[in-house]
Amino acid sequence: MFPIGDVAELPTEHIEAEIERLAAGIAATSARWLLLVGEYDARGAWGTWGGVKSSAEWVAWRCSLTPRAAREHVRVARALRNLPKAIAAFAAGELSYSKVRALSRVATPESEEDLVEIATHATAAQLERIMAGYRRVSLRQANMAHEERFLSYYWNHDGSLRLSGSLPAEEGALFLRALEAARDGLFESGENGSAEPHQARESGENGSAEPRDASPPRPRSVDALGLMAESFLASGPAERKGAERYQLVLHSRADGRFHLGDGPALTPETAKRLGCDARLVSITERDGEPLSVGRRTRSVSAAIRRALEARDGGCRFPGCNARRYLDAHHVEHWAAGGETSKRNLVLLCRRHHRLVHEGGYSIGFSENGELEVRAPGGRRVEANPKLRFDLPFRPPETGPLQIGTGERMDLGMTVDGVASAIDRANRDGHG
What we know:
By secondary structure, the protein is an alpha+beta fold. It is 44% helix and 10% strand. It has 15 helices and 10 strands.
């Protein structure tokens, strides 16, 4: 039993160091726990407990997890039984559970060595995006998604309406863009609803458990859905209009693969259909000339905005994963001679944009061209400092937890690298 009452007396530096050490310890302990869960599942030992229908149900019961979390842990445990290199890095405290979970959706015994190497250089959030980008959709899957789309509803006993549905990728992306537009409209009008108590729940797995700042609450998706219904009833069907920020962005790659923004992969057939009769922005993933409007204006054009979104993918402030409500920030201020070009602009969420302008933080580029952020006192803000795992029970021969460098990544290039590694592994495995 560790002491509890001493936490308030600890120096901040000690707290930071212990948080990092314990995070590495949690990773190593989680690996052991998942190994045991995988073996227990393989033996079917849960069947000896009357009334238990699956190993996930037993884990949820005996380990005090929600059913959804238990099912995901069992899925990962099953996958790890066939991924010896991933489980070894996990057990050594080098990979976190979040990274292993992402790898387990794609990796095979033949490809895991390359994927584990990628995982050591990417942050957990980046790795999730890389693995999601790789998961290609077959034509059969795309057709099934279209045929099986549905929207159902029923009235609860308390008079509320319960909705449930499933949409194919392109329709789902369009629906989310409409929700985003409606939320922005509510926010700009000051009609924020009762967002704060439910914000974390609606953010999903990509949300943050950190305390929220004191900024005004954002409208909830349910408020936006109500506005969408009211708007349609008021104006009826209309030709699709709207600002550039709500257009769908289709990324196409040289090898014929497509995906919607940071969303799901698409088949070439689906991409071609969308291009026939849709307000769609297509970005070909090739090295191109930097977009620039020179010194004539400081306004960011729609073309530059699209290029920034394709390049940055979200807020560039270290450690921030925000991908909505972003501003284009001039690294060298326009008034000081900085041009309005892609090379002089970075995307920042509104909270971090305020920190750079009013909070005393500075942002610039290092000698090697990487973005560099410094706090008011001059201390560099690192995206992902290396964690050190030196708890007494840790084997001395293991290394530090690999959490990624936090540098900006080229999502398309990285996904292509994953695809090449898996294709090469598949060829070697069947050679």
